[in-house]
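Hi R.,

Here's the chain you asked about this morning:
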Amino acid sequence: MAAAGQPGLHIVRVYISSAYPRARGLHWRAMATQPHNRQFKYYDFVMAAYVCVLLCSNLIGPAKETTIQLPFGMSVTFLAGVLFFPISYIFGDILTEVYGYGRDRRVVWAGFGALAFASIMAAVVVHLPPSARSLPDQPAVDAIFGNTPRIVAASILAFLCGTFVNSYVLAKMKILTQGRWLWTRIVGSTLCGELVDSVIFYFLAFWGRMPLPHLALIMLTQYALKSGWEIVATPLTYRVVAFLKKAEKEDYYDIGTNFTPFSLKA
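And the predicted structure, written out as tokens:
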């Protein structure tokens, strides 16, 4: 490896283990590396996939409520988007684990911009006067895209808060565990982020519209489903993280990172 004083290389806030991450006797050393604002091969693709999943799960997913029959005569009812929205948290885990909190933060704000634009576009499309030929379809358009401003605002705020909590917890746990036990970071950050997301969304969107016990039951059911989905997907997350770390030659540790959400600095 080139020395830190060589052109194009310098010490940054990246610390990686000189031992295999799961090995005992783990120790740390600063390494000469390229600046964190360098170009990556797969970062843009991960960002595009993240925004795509976020938009689809928020625009298509809520259009249908489904009921799944369980053993012993039990059933569970949820919005179809619950099956897909947790994928955005998986991407958040991958981004923070490989590229760091700062780069994940940029992706989150990109997702926020896309979600805000889609919400505005949906509102405009719903309220445009229909032609005579499309008039019979207007109730369907209202039902699918006509979310109230209260629900839209709750959804966007819950997304921002939950996602940033997820990334913050994962970044801090990575330092605390010295890069070991990735599964603890995936599960721990997911439980924290999804809890914040669920509480903010359901209470802001439906408080006063349904009895509190029913609201709490729906919130806890959705929280359990989303968190369980991500926990089941942990082996896949492991494989993607390992691939990206090797391909990008990056394993970022947020030592000294400014964790404010209100920045686009990587």
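Residues 14 and 135 are 58 Å apart (CA to CA).

Let me know if you need anything else.
M.
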